[in-house]
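Hey, resending since the last one bounced:
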Amino acid sequence: MDARRRVMDSASRDSSGRAAFTLVELLVVIAIIALLLGLLIPAATEAREAARRMQYRNNIRNLGLGVLRREHAYGKFPAGVYAAKQLPPDRRDRCWAVMAIVFGAATA
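The structure tokens again:
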């Protein structure tokens, strides 16, 4: 039994006497790492997509809240289009969405 153990120990050591990995062990470790990365990448992509969807919903919600806050303050919803002469010079060329966002940001 001692002779068999010495043969196995000497097979896993290199010429300097240090323990070394065999090629099979190295390939198994690389395969395990590749498998873990293969599972991690789709999960990270899925999390990114979920965050993007949540951000989109939040933006739509904020737009709706801005319109409702403006309606609550002025008693009417913002017009679809404003004529340039109806607005001060610094607020010309703005559509209803910009007016709602600006109003929502100013009161938030």
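Residues 2-107 form one domain.

Sorry for the duplicate.
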